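Mods, move this if it's the wrong board.
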Amino acid sequence: MSIESHSPSTQLNSPIIAAVDGSASSAQAVAWAAVEARLHQCRLHLVTSMVIQTGFGPGMILGYADVARLREDGERILIEATRIARTAAPGDESQITTEMSFELIIPMLIELSAQARILVVGSRGMGAFQRGLLGSVSTATTQHAHCPVAVIHGISATDAVSASQPVLVGVDGTRNSSPAVELAFEEASRRKVGLTALHAWSDASGPDLPVAGWDGARESAQAILAESLAGYTERYPDVAVRRIVVADRPVRSLLDESANAQLVVVGSHGRGGFTTMVLGSTSNALLHSVEVPMIVVREP
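Not the wrong board. Structure tokens:
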């Protein structure tokens, strides 16, 4: 499978891809992905891998009976995932396709992401049993995928109460956050909810924050936020925007505000990110702590 550039033209017919493994986290990811596919009116592609991780050393040799048993398990997982998707988005006529592979799931998903609109993964798979632990699949895909990656934690936030909450986007005023701002506006518009745009202009928090120059710094931060949102408010007039400027660390402020949101959208790198980094400190920290679904958007 060749890797193609991710552009708006290729997104028109691109599916939403969800990784499934039969875990509870995977079930939440499927539910969220099904609703997302209905919002975008696109195909939902469910992917599972039945490869056995053997670690270092010689691989395990499987007989025909073993392969047949694994294939049956994979089919069961995909059938259940399809049922969950249909239940989460009842009445949706969007196409659901499935794929079972005996390839390693991480490189497979990264390669498939080149043709995906959004890649959806659970925060913890079958191998991640500790509460709050971010799974290897979600970690690797947010770092290396070619498309936005949605990580679904303990809840899919697809219930009626959650669905009325706004979309939250972190804005840092750099080019890195522009794709995240654009995607957040689109998600809010499709969901018919408001957008909370948060800009944290301090890298410190607590009683040691400097008092001198606060007014000037706040005005500058408000100007940065306004400039970052310029153009999008005209393109999405149906989206009511709530602007928040705080003198606090981005992780802490976004985490606090996420309690009032159905979805968090952030860029892969913040104002301190370097092009050689695979994931910024803010997005990485939020992936380990936020409870609602979260989308990490990499710059094309």
